[in-house]
Amino acid sequence: TEALQPVVEKPRCWELNNCTPEMRATCPGYLSEAPCWQARRNENGYLQEKCLGCDVFRKAPIPEFN
Prior knowledge:
This protein starts with 12 loop residues before the first helix and ends in an 8-residue tail after the last helix. About 40% of the residues lie in helices and about 0% in strands. The mean pLDDT is about 85. By secondary structure, the protein is mainly α. The chain is built from six helices and no strands. The chain has helices spanning about 15, 20-25, 30, 35-40, 50, 55-60.
């Protein structure tokens, strides 16, 4: 049988960063189902430098793989 994945609420980075509705309207982190740091990766696939120091990224649960 397939292991159930825990349901984790998506971090609300736009609240932490006080983003305006106008900013959210074009933000990949807000519009995507993925966590903000995943949606905002650089073209080379690397995480953005500002994401690495962000509390939303740093406090995110670490996924467990079996």
